[in-house]
Amino acid sequence: MNIRATSNPLVRAAGHWLERVNDRHPWSHNDHFHPWILRSLPAAPTRVLDVGCGRGELVGALIPRAGLVEGIDPDAAMAYATATRFRSEPRVHIARRTLTEQAGDPARAGQYDAVTMVASLHHMDTATALAEASALLRPGGRLLIVTLTRPRTRADHAWDVLSALMNPLIGLVKHPRLVRPTDRQAEPAAAAPPVRDPQLTIDDLREAAAELLPGARIRRRQGFRVTLSWRKPVT
């Protein structure tokens, strides 16, 4: 049973209850993996590219760790918001650009110590994006991906159920203070990133990685996420 799309009334009622709990103790499923990305970076990276930088949360986390942080996003509102946020930071460069455009510049080939993607891979063609990211990396550079996938197998659906049950528990740990509706009304409005349901399955990702990124490590994670880490061989 696909708990994300089921019409079963009991499952949907349980899902609505979990949503209410999550709203009261919210946590970012994407930001949750920033520590994993920071731990997985090569030592003292000089140049890092964040693909699909959104509002710049990961860019901000990367600044203390990298000499130069570049963020790209094809969405004009996201690129503008992040560029404005870091306009006084000389070690950050933000551009409205696709990964294909970035990789199409010969001057950028093999220039990055790390390329990161958080919740952006499923917006692109998987094989093309993996190949382009690989081309941008220096030998020994790291590709670090956090992505959403579509459940297809029984194992996928079982992990979805476990993620749904873990979600409120993680929220209680990360955000123990109860959030009330009045708290949300007081928050300034922020540009919303584009949303797309994933068509990519974990098996699709494994198949593409086996061909393009031999030795890549792919793991199911909490929060309905999957991570991929790969080190470009040094030839």
TrEMBL record:
Membrane-spanning parts: none
GO MF term list: methyltransferase activity
UniProt keyword list: Methyltransferase, Transferase
Annotated Pfam families: Methyltransf_12
Matches recorded under InterPro entries: Methyltransf_12 (IPR013217), SAM-dependent_MTases_sf (IPR029063)
Biological-process GO terms, alphabetical: methylation
Domain Methyltransferase type: 49-143
Record has Flavoprotein as a keyword: no
Listed name of the protein: Class I SAM-dependent methyltransferase
Annotated source species: Candidatus Brachybacterium merdavium
